[in-house]
């Protein structure tokens, strides 16, 4: 069996692979970006292969790096679960949370490990829905909803005003030719999100523009799916800025114009009546508010 790499190198690699960023990995592990870079270089030297492509805005795993990241991440997760299960003396508090599939996948899930690190005694069970405006028979403690905040629960917390922006792949923008403007995007292959069909017209009205919007190229029921489509290299879609942030930071999508549409609807944390006094409920609500205010 080949000599195993040093666990410190593997921890740096796992964090950098998850964040697609040496700086974000350094912040998580309490190190400097230079230290993370050095540890990964030592790992690459040990394995005699390149694990990351270094780019001006972040890093991207090579094919071998991607294949290696999955078992490394699973190994750390298995060790953490075994340690927690065998040696933890703290009782774990179950917290049941629901969010839309886009909010869960694009905002909550990528940061959920930070909540766990801060509160290891709180066990979060996260479920998703496309549309949800009430607590049903499913046992939930917290619901993250999109709307106007006019629901019947007593504890409803606004997560802040939101904006929608057009996004597409750099490849697609380059293919439109020249300097891409909002009129060109509106007339391109628009991937429309059900429930937000009027956003392009509202964007034109808000900025006093006069452009027509062609018939939708495709129509889907979530921002997550819309962005997956345009990341394939074709089409443009308009999504909430929070939903696009991680893809833009990773270089997978771009916001080719500066136009933003202020949305009348926004996200709220809704607490089921009767559980608002539980400590873990308030911990999670405060943590989600911090995500949206960052």
Q: Would you spell out the secondary-structure blueprint of this structure?
A:
Layout: H1 7-19, H2 22-29, H3 33-47, E1 52-55, E2 58-61, H4 63-87, E3 93-100, H5 101-108, H6 112-118, E4 122-129, E5 142-147, E6 155-158, E7 163-168, H7 170-175, H8 182-186, E8 191-193, H9 199-206, E9 218-220, H10 223-231, E10 236-240, H11 241-249, E11 261-262, E12 266-271, H12 279-293
Parallel strand pairs: 3-4, 3-5, 8-9
Antiparallel strand pairs: 1-2, 5-12, 6-12, 7-10, 7-11
Helix pairs in contact: 1-2, 1-3, 1-4, 2-3, 5-11
Tell me the strand percentage band. Answer: 15-25%
For the sheet with most strands, the description reads: 5 strands, mixed
Categorize the overall geometry: flat
Rounded to an integer in angstroms, the radius of gyration calculated over CA atoms is 22 Å
Per DSSP, the total helix count is 12
Report on the structure:
Strand 8, helix 9 and strand 9 form a beta-alpha-beta unit. This protein has 294 residues and is an alpha/beta fold. It is 44% helix and 20% strand. The mean pLDDT is 90. The chain starts with 6 loop residues before the first helix and ends with a helix. The strands form four sheets. The protein has a five-stranded mixed β-sheet. Strands 10-7-11 form a three-stranded antiparallel β-sheet. A two-stranded antiparallel sheet has the order 1-2.
């Amino acid at each position: 069996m080949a000599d195993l790499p040093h666990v410190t190198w593997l921890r740096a690699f796992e964090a950098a692979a998850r964040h697609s960023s040496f700086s974000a990995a350094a912040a998580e592990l309490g190190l400097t970006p230079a230290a993370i870079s050095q540890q990964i270089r030592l790992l690459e030297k040990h394995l005699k292969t390149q694990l990351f492509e270094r780019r001006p805005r972040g890093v991207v795993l090579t094919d071998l790096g991607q294949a290696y990241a999955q078992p490394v991440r699973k190994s750390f997760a298995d060790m953490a679960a075994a340690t927690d299960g065998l040696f933890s003396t703290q009782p774990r508090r179950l917290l049941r949370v629901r969010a839309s599939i886009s909010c869960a996948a694009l905002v909550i899930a990528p940061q959920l490990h930070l909540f766990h690190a801060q509160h290891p005694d709180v066990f979060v069970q996260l479920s998703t829905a496309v549309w949800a405006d009430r607590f049903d028979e499913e046992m939930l403690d917290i619901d993250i909803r999109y709307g106007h905040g006019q629901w019947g629960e007593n504890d409803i917390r606004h997560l802040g005003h939101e904006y929608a922006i057009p996004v597409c792949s750099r490849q697609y923008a380059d293919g439109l030719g020249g300097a891409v403007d909002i009129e060109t995007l509106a007339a391109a292959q628009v991937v429309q999100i059900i429930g937000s069909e009027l956003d392009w017209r509202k964007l034109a009205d808000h900025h006093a523009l006069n452009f027509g919007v062609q018939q939708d190229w495709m129509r889907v029921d979530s921002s997550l799916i819309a962005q997956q489509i345009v990341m394939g290299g074709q089409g443009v879609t308009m999504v909430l800025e929070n939903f696009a942030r991680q893809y833009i930071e990773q270089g997978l999508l771009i916001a080719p114009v500066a136009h933003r549409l202020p949305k009348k609807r926004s996200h709220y944390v809704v607490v089921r009546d009767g559980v608002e006094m539980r400590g873990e409920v308030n911990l999670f609500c405060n943590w989600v508010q911090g995500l949206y205010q960052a």
